[in-house]
UniProtKB/TrEMBL annotation:
GO cellular component: cytosol; succinate-CoA ligase complex
Domain of life: Bacteria
Protein name, entry field: Succinate--CoA ligase [ADP-forming] subunit beta
Organism of this sequence: Planktosalinus lacus
Family: Belongs to the succinate/malate CoA ligase beta subunit family.
Protein's gene: sucC
């Protein structure tokens, strides 16, 4: 689950990470109110107004703007709230901006040497360790840095069973070329950031930029946070941060029905039980010259009701030209699933795209008979390869 910048900063702050402070606002008028509050608390007179959407690169798209004085806040917030923000990380239609973060300007005017640092904490799956990735080249996208100047990216691996050790935090500060107060502040920052990542059960914390001011403060200016969905049950307060407006509507609906669905760009919808089989099925579709339109794991209890819900989800996607159902009957009986498909077909009404069903396992033969005798536009096959051939046939 992804968070907004302001939510990520709240979590960071609760673990003692120094952040660029701010308040979220839904309207330009509210932006003025919170700007006043911010001035009371921080003394700032310049504000940075930032679109809160689940996408990076907002600055480039005009979603981050400076208001040089309280009198400009309403106008600037008005320009950003309601816009469809297009960034290198959004689709061409962009993301609708419902709210902005009104934050203190932490780039002091006339400051010749604020420096922008990149820092992220994530899991290195290859080593099974957490990893702090950092660079002196903050502010721009890290992919470009990785491509053009890979030697300017450092990593520090943290053993999750031990946690971050003081010498590791010092090594980060040292590699960033910091000295004196900034060095000490950075070791505190890194330690608090790692703790926030670990204690919140996140899979990513990306702070770009971390700002070093000329008076040696180290501040998180941005925050991109991804929480691990599987750990949300023990973070009820974070779970409430979910913003459904930012998520794919079909994926939201699938989650409510307990289906594991990910929207993709292809033309073949798939319905599979088990994540591993779903991955193999997507490979098979590609091999047959199609592209998967989705990942859908209906889970171990592929009963008639779930089969029908799954069909309805897949059919919402206008790009779908065929549907491949690939179910292995272990605990679940194939004839039950087949009956579910036949019922769903009748309940949903006319399904215009061909359906290829491969049922293998317990009672597969009875299932095939059921489908073949149903008189519906459903092709039943038993072998994996037959399914691929059939997909190819209906697509051509
Ligand atoms: P992103 O473009 O979505 O990554 O959004 P960021 O939060 O990283 O902001 C984009 C850029 O806006 C940063 O790289 C900074 O250069 C700039 N920015 C952010 N906060 C401030 C601020 O307080 N003052 C000034 N002058 N610029 C800021
Ligand atoms: Mn950023």
């Amino acid at each position: 689950m992804n968070l907004h910048e302001y939510q990520g900063k709240q979590i960071l702050n609760s673990f003692g990470v120094d952040i660029q402070r701010g308040y979220v606002a839904q309207t330009p008028q509210e932006a003025v109110e919170v700007a006043k509050k911010l001035t009371d608390e921080t003394g700032t007179s310049w504000y940075v107004i930032k679109a809160q959407v689940h996408a990076g690169g907002r600055g480039k798209g005009g979603g981050v703007k400076l208001a040089k004085g309280i009198e400009h806040v309403e106008e600037v917030a008005g320009q950003i709230i309601g816009m469809d923000l297009v960034t290198p990380q959004t689709s061409a239609e962009g993301k609708h901006v419902h709210q902005v973060l009104v934050a203190e300007d932490v780039y002091y005017p006339g400051d010749s040497e604020p420096s922008e640092i990149y820092m992220s904490v994530l899991l290195n799956r290859a080593t099974g360790k957490n990893m702090i990735m950092y660079s002196t080249e903050g502010g721009m996208d890290i992919e470009t840095v990785a491509e053009k100047t890979p030697h300017l990216i450092f990593t520090e691996e943290i053993d999750p069973s031990v946690g971050i050790l003081p010498f590791q935090a010092r090594r980060v500060a040292f590699n960033l070329g910091l000295e004196g107060k900034a060095f000490k502040e950075m070791t505190k920052f890194v330690t608090a950031l790692y703790t926030a990542y670990e204690k919140s059960d996140s899979s990513l914390f990306e702070i770009n930029p971390v700002l070093k001011t000329s008076d040696d403060r180290i501040i998180a200016v941005d925050a991109k946070v991804t929480l691990d969905d599987n750990a949300l049950y023990r973070h009820k307060d974070y779970a409430e941060m979910r913003d459904l407006r930012e998520e794919n509507a079909t994926e939201v609906e699938a989650r409510a029905k307990g289906l594991n669905y990910v929207d993709l760009d292809g033309n073949v919808g798939c319905m599979v039980n088990g994540a591993g089989l779903a991955m193999a099925t997507m490979d098979l579709i590609k091999q047959a010259g199609g592209e998967p339109a989705n990942f859908l794991d209906v889970g171990g209890t592929a009963d008639a009701e779930r089969v029908e819900s799954a069909f309805k989800l897949i059919l919402k996607d206008p790009k779908v030209k065929a549907i491949l159902v690939n179910i292995f009957g272990g605990i679940v009986r194939c004839d039950r699933v087949a009956q579910g498909i036949v019922d769903a077909y009748k309940n949903i009404g006319e399904i215009k795209v061909p359906i290829i069903v491969r049922l293998q396992g317990t009672n597969a033969d009875i299932a095939k008979e059921l489908i073949d005798n149903s008189g519906l536009n459903v092709h039943s096959v038993i072998q994996f390869q037959e399914a691929a051939d059939k997909v190819q046939e209906v697509l051509s």
